[in-house]
Amino acid sequence: MEALQWILSAGTNFFEGIQLSNDLVRLQATLPKARMLICRSEWGMFKDKQLAKLLSHLKDTTYDAEDLLRQLDDQVLRQRIEDADRSRAGQLLSSSLNLAKTYIRGSKARIKETQEKLDKVVAEIEGMLNLMGLMSVEPSQIMPETSSVISAPEVVGRDGERNALIEMLGVMIGREAQRDQVIKLLGVPLTRGRRSAGSNGKRTTAGSGVASTSRAKQPKGNNGRAGHAEINCKSNVSVIPIVGIGGVGKTTLAQYIYNDPRVKNHFGVMIWVCVSDFFDKKRITKEIIESIPGEEFNPSCSLNALQIELMERLKMCPKFLLVLDDVWPNANADWEAFYAPLRRGPEGSMILVTTRCPVVATRVTTSNCEPFHLEGLPTDVFWDFFKKCAFGRNDPESYPHLQDIGRSISTRLCGSPLAAKTLGRLLSMRLTEQHWRTIQKSELWELRHEENEILPALQLSYLYLPEEVKTCFMFCSMFPKDYSFERDKIVDIWVAEGFVAPEGSMRSEDVGICYLDEMRNRFLFQADPKFPNKARYVMHDLIHDMAVSFSMDECFVMQDLSNRMHSTVRHMSIEVDGESLTRMGDIQHFNKLHSLRFIIGFDVEITWFNQLSNILYLSLKGCKLVKLPESICELNSLRYLDISHSSVQELPEKLWCLYSLQVLDASRSSLKTIHQDVTKLINLRQLALPVGASQALSKVSGLGNLSCLRDLSEFRVAKENGRGIGELKFMNHLNGTLAIRSLIHVGSVQEAAEARLIDKQYLKELVLQWRQKSIFTLVNSDNEVLEHLRPHSRIECLKILGFAGDTLPSWFKPEDLPTLRSLELSYCGCFQSLSIPCLADRTQAGLAGGDGTQHASSSGSHNNGIAPFAFTCLTALRVYRCIGLTNLEQFLIPETLPSIKSIVLERCSHLKSIPVHRFAEFVCLQDLKICRCRRLECPREMVLPTSLRRLCIVACNYELERSFPACLENLASLTLLQLVYCDSVKCIPLNSIASNMLKCLVIRLCLELSSIGGLQGLASIQHIQLSDCPKLTEVQLPFEKKELRTKEGKELLKFLH
C-alpha cells in the first residue's frame, strides 16, 4: 500500500499506478517459487551441466528481480524521510519527487522485462527438474549405503598382505590409537583372550552376519532439533558417538572396530545399520530385530509391535554391539522413542553412533560416556598415506621435486583420508612436474565431479541446511581462505544483505546467531585457534572449497589479475593492490555487485563507486584513505559501510542521505566528530565509533530517531531541545553498556520515567551518573529520579556515580535484579548506610544478633542454605569515595552476598563498621581491597576465607591492622599481598603462610614491620617491592624483583593500589 501511495504521489495516472502496483505484486509473488527451485536444483546441479547452467541463470534473474524491488523500497523510504519536514507545496517541488517520477518511468519496462525473464527460466528449470524426478518428491542426494564390511577386498589367511593393501587404500592408516581408545570405551580388554559372549555364553550366527541395510527414505528436513535430554545413567546399554567432519573416516573407523577380533569375541551379537539421511524408527528397529536370533515376525506391523518384539528378543540375547552409521540431526526428536526398548538390553551392551553433527553426538551420548571427536590424521601419518596415494607403487624418493609439491598440496587437506585419495589419484596419473603444478594451483572445486569423492561427502552438509542458512554459508566464500570471522560482524553483514528471515519477536541478529550455530553444529565453521576464548571462527579449507563449488557464479575472490570476474558475480573481495587494479582498466558488471571488500592496506583511488548501484556491503577496512570519496554518497542501497582501521577523519555531509544504512563501522579510525544529521539514518542498527566521535555522538540532539540502534555507549542529558532523557524512550534495542551522564539535568520524575529503562531488556551494564565528584549536601530530587530509572531485570552490572541522594531505590532488591553480578557506588557522598528494602524488612523481623550484628534467622529465612533476600548472582562490589558512608553491617554479610568474589572499599573516610570477623563465611571470595578507610572500628579481628587470592590493605588503622599476621593463616590460594601504610603490623612470616602460590608481594611504608621470616620466604615470589620499612633489617631496602611478564602476571599486578 505504501508503494502504491508513493507511485500515485509522484503524479502517475491512477490506472497506470494500479497497473504498476499489480505488476510489482506479481513479481514479488514469483520469487518464493524461484527460490524453491534454486534449492531443488542444487541437488542435481553436479549431475547435469545444462541444469547447472540454468540454475546460474535463474539465480541471476532472481537477484535482478530482488534488486528492482529493493530499489523501489529505498525510493519510498527516501521520499518519506525528505518530505517529513516539508509543507505540501514543498513536497511537490522536492528533488526526491522528481527523482521518483524519473524512476517510475524507467521502472515500467524493467518490471515487465524482469518478469518475462523470470517466468521463462522458471518454466525451463521446472521442466528439467520434472524430467530428473526432483519435483515430485523431496530432493535427495544418492546417499552411500554402508555395511560392516571393511571397504577393501577380504583376503582370507593373508593377514599381512591384507593389512598392507588396506593401508594403501587408507582404511586403517594412523587409526590404531583411536580404534584402541574406542574399544576401551566399549569395555573390551585390549589383550586377546577368551570370548565373553554375554549372559548365556552362546555365540549366535547373527554375530558373523551383517544386518540388512536398506535404502533410507527421502529426507523430511531438519525439524527434529530437540535439545539434549539426559539419558538415564542406569541404562544397561551405553551410547558412544564418533563425531567428525565429512570425509574424515568415521565409517571406516567404525568398520575397523566392528571387525576387530577382540570386539567380536567380546560381544555375542553384532549389528550394523546404515541410518543415513532419514531417521526411520520402524526401519531401523526392524533391521535390529532381524539381526537378533528369534522366531519369524511380521515386518509390516506397527512401531509398537516392533518395539515389543525387540524387547522380547533382548531378554534372551547376549550382550550386543550396535553400530548406527551416519546419523543426522533429524534423529534428535525421535531418539528417546527409538532408544527406549534398547535401554534395558543385556548389561554391557553398547551402541556406536557415527555422525558429522555435534548436536546429534550430544543428544545421543549416555551420561556415562563422552563423544569421541575424530580429527584429521596426524601430519606425519597423513603425509605417508598421501605419498602412497600419489606415487602408488613408485618410489617417492625417486621424485624429490614432486615431493615438495606434494607436501604443499597435502597441507591444504587437513588430514582428511578421503581428500588424500581424491587428490592422490589425480596426481598419480602423471608423475610430471607440470601436471603436479597444475593440481597444486587448482582448487578442489575445479576438479571434475566424477573424479572427486571429497566434495560430494562435504556437500551433503550444505544441502541439508535450511534455505536461509544456505545463503549465509555460501556468501562466506567471498572471503579468502583462513579468513577469521567475528561472530557479531558476519551476522550483521548477513542481516544487511537481507539473508536473515524474521522469526517472531526475535531480533534479526539473534536469528543470525542461530544460523551460525547451525553451521558450527555441522562443522562448517570451527573456532579460530588464533583467537582463543573469543567468538571468532574459520572455515576449514576443504569446507571453503565446498562452499565455492556452490557459489562460483556468485562469489569471487580476485587474488591475481588472471582471474576475471563473471557477469553474474554479486559478492567480490579484491585481494590485489590498487595499482594492479588500475592496470586492469574498466571492470564490467559493477552495477550487479551486492558486496565489495578490499584487502587491508589497499590504496583507494577509485572513481567508479557510483557504479555500485545495488551495493549493500562495502568494506574499506584498513584502506589507505583520509577522506571518503563523494561518490559513495550516491549508493542509495548501501546497508553496511566499514571504514574501521582507516585514517578517515570526517565524513561527507551527503553520507547522511544514505537512509537505508544499517551499520557504520568506524571503529579504530581517525574520525573526530559526528554530524547532527546522523539522526536521519532511522534504520541504523550499529554505529561503531572511536572514543572522540562517540563522545560527540552523546551530545547530538534527536538521538531518539535512531530507534533501531543497538549500541550507544554514552548519552549526555542536557536542557536543550532533543537532549532530554526522554530521547531514550523508544531505543529498546540498545545492548551492551549504556552510560547516562549529567542526570542533574533531569527536571522531574515524569521526565526520568520517560526514559523507560525497564524496557531495555538487552542492556547488560547501566551507568547512572549525576556528577563527576561528590557533594555532601543531600539532594532529595536525586532520590526521586533514581527511583524512576528502574532498569530491566536482566541487568548484570549497575554503577551509580555522583549521586547526592541518601537511599537506594525500592527496586534495588534481589527479586527485581535477579541477574545482577556487579555493583559500584562511587562519589555518592550522602549515603550513611546501604538501606535496602528487603534488609529493612529483615531487621523488622527481629533478625539482629545480641552483639548488634545481623544474622540469618534459624528458620523460615533460608532455602537450601541461601537467604531469600540474597543477591545470589552478585560477585563484585566496589564502593569508592562514598564519604558519608559509615556502616555496611547490614549489607556486607554472607546472607546477602553468598556468591561474592570481589570486595573493593576505597577512600570511604567515614566508614566505621564492616563485619570483618565474618569475612571467612564468604566462601567464594577471591579479591579483597580495603584502602584509605581510616576510621574503621573492628571489635573483632578479621578472619579471611581460604579461597582468597588477592589481598590489598592500604592506609587503614590499628583496628584492622591488629588482625595481622593471624588473618593470613590457611590462605592456601593467596597469590598477591599488598600492605601499605600499615603502621601497626610488626611481623609477616612469609615462610609460615600456607600459600605456596604467592607471586606478588608489595610492602611499603609499614613503620613497625620488623620481620618477614627471612630471605628464604622471598625465593619463589616473582614480583617483590619492599621499601620504607625502617625496622625491617632482614633485607636490604629498597628491595625489588620484577619477573611477572606473562599476560596473567600483568593482569595480577593491575589489582595493586
UniProtKB/TrEMBL annotation:
<dbReference type="Pfam" id="PF23559">
    <property type="entry name" value="WHD_DRP"/>
</dbReference>
<dbReference type="Pfam" id="PF25019">
    <property type="entry name" value="LRR_R13L1-DRL21"/>
</dbReference>
<feature type="region of interest" description="Disordered">
    <location>
        <begin position="192"/>
        <end position="228"/>
    </location>
</feature>
<dbReference type="InterPro" id="IPR002182">
    <property type="entry name" value="NB-ARC"/>
</dbReference>
<keyword id="KW-0677">Repeat</keyword>
<dbReference type="InterPro" id="IPR032675">
    <property type="entry name" value="LRR_dom_sf"/>
</dbReference>
<protein>
    <recommendedName>
        <fullName>NB-ARC domain-containing protein</fullName>
    </recommendedName>
</protein>
<dbReference type="InterPro" id="IPR058922">
    <property type="entry name" value="WHD_DRP"/>
</dbReference>
<keyword id="KW-0433">Leucine-rich repeat</keyword>
<dbReference type="GO" id="GO:0043531">
    <property type="term" value="F:ADP binding"/>
</dbReference>
<dbReference type="InterPro" id="IPR027417">
    <property type="entry name" value="P-loop_NTPase"/>
</dbReference>
<dbReference type="InterPro" id="IPR036388">
    <property type="entry name" value="WH-like_DNA-bd_sf"/>
</dbReference>
<keyword id="KW-0611">Plant defense</keyword>
<keyword id="KW-0175">Coiled coil</keyword>
<dbReference type="Pfam" id="PF00931">
    <property type="entry name" value="NB-ARC"/>
</dbReference>
<dbReference type="GO" id="GO:0009626">
    <property type="term" value="P:plant-type hypersensitive response"/>
</dbReference>
<feature type="domain" description="NB-ARC">
    <location>
        <begin position="234"/>
        <end position="394"/>
    </location>
</feature>
<feature type="domain" description="Disease resistance protein winged helix">
    <location>
        <begin position="478"/>
        <end position="547"/>
    </location>
</feature>
<feature type="domain" description="R13L1/DRL21-like LRR repeat region">
    <location>
        <begin position="725"/>
        <end position="834"/>
    </location>
</feature>
<dbReference type="GO" id="GO:0002758">
    <property type="term" value="P:innate immune response-activating signaling pathway"/>
</dbReference>
<feature type="coiled-coil region">
    <location>
        <begin position="104"/>
        <end position="131"/>
    </location>
</feature>
<dbReference type="InterPro" id="IPR056789">
    <property type="entry name" value="LRR_R13L1-DRL21"/>
</dbReference>
<dbReference type="InterPro" id="IPR042197">
    <property type="entry name" value="Apaf_helical"/>
</dbReference>
<feature type="compositionally biased region" description="Polar residues">
    <location>
        <begin position="197"/>
        <end position="216"/>
    </location>
</feature>
<dbReference type="GO" id="GO:0042742">
    <property type="term" value="P:defense response to bacterium"/>
</dbReference>
